[in-house]
Amino acid sequence: MAKGGKNPKGKKVTLKVAKNCIKITFDGKRRLDLSKMGITTFPRCILKLNDVDELDLSRNMLKKIPDSIDKFTNLRWLDLHSNQIEKLPETIGNLQGLIFLNLCNNKLTARSLPMELNQLKILRNLNLGLNHIDNLPTTLGQLKELQEVGVFDNLLKSIPNSIAKLPKLKKLNSKRNPFPGPTEEELYIDHIKRLETLYVVEEKDLCYPCLRKCQEERDKLNKLKNTAPAPLRKPNFSSLMTPNSTAKENQADW
Q1: C-alpha to C-alpha distance for 124 and 116, rounded to whole angstroms
Q2: Which residue windows does the record flag with biased composition (Polar residues) (predicted)?
Q3: What is the C-alpha end-to-end distance of the chain, expressed in Å?
Q4: Largest alpha-carbon pair distance within the chain?
Q5: Rounded CA gap, 96 and 150, in Å?
Q6: What phi and psi, each to the nearest 5 degrees, are found at residue 87?
Q7: Are 136 and 156 in contact (CB under 8 A)?
Q8: pTM for the model
Q9: Domain count, the chain
């Protein structure tokens, strides 16, 4: 804490510093990495570097993202996790090239999630974990390309069906939410346990070992189907001695 009880200003990022933080990813994209720099306010100077493909502002102390974030028109990857962000600007919906958005570990609530998030039509990975969200907007179900969604460690009582049943969803992490029942989370996970790929071929197109294996498995299934349950056998107590005089005389009744 600075003198006088004021919050620290944080590190100032200049354009020169920002330029030196640009890295080239393994697939040839330009990433501006300003993570773990103690930044408290969004550095306006980086708007001059708005042609980068990826922007990492994670693990800082940001509370607000400006409307001008949509100036990064080439952005496909945005990491804002582990800040103190309380609200997202509506203009984030203009970043329609985004495929990755990490908002984990902030101070977001249901009200601070703009409806414009549903405009991120090619988004594949969305992380909203470790926030204060008690309700997910059903409009997120319009993001048909989503494959991974994280909403763990929030205040959720339910997951909208429009999200749980997204057609390409492979992973839905909703752990540690106050769901009403112990099997609530399992219920939503079951929605995404679906067949991903099915190949149908004719027998003539299979090699002999593969054909033989398929036939053996089919024979096993048929054998199980055709196996009738064995009738219950009445127990035979022929070796038992006759009951004593205080018991019933009839062996079967006894």
Answers
A1: 16
A2: 236-254
A3: 87
A4: 107
A5: 20
A6: -155, 145
A7: yes
A8: 0.70
A9: 1
Which residues 6+ apart lie within 8 Å of 218 measured at CB?
none
Cα 234 to chain center, whole Å?
55
Q: How far apart are CA 77 and CA 66, in angstroms?
A: 17
Q: Residue 174 has which token pair?
A: 């909703």
Question: Over the stretch 131-184, which tens digit does the pLDDT of each residue have?
Answer: 999 999 999 999 999 999 999 999 999 999 999 999 999 999 999 999 987 544
CA distance 86 to 6: 20
Range of the domain at 120: 15-173
Write the pLDDT tens digit of every residue in 17-53. 999 999 999 999 999 999 999 999 999 999 999 999 9
Report if residue 168 sits inside a domain: yes
Say if 38 falls within a structural domain.
yes
Distance CA 132, CA 112 (A): 10
Domain presence at residue 238: no
Report if residue 237 sits inside a domain. Answer: no
103, 125 contact by CB (below 8 A): no
Buried b (16+ CB within 10 A) or exposed e, 137-176: bebbbbbeebeebbbbbbebeebbeebbebeebeebbbee
User: Rounded to 5 degrees, what are φ and ψ at 78?
Assistant: -135, 120
Looking up residue 27, the CATH number of its domain turns out to be 3.80.10.10
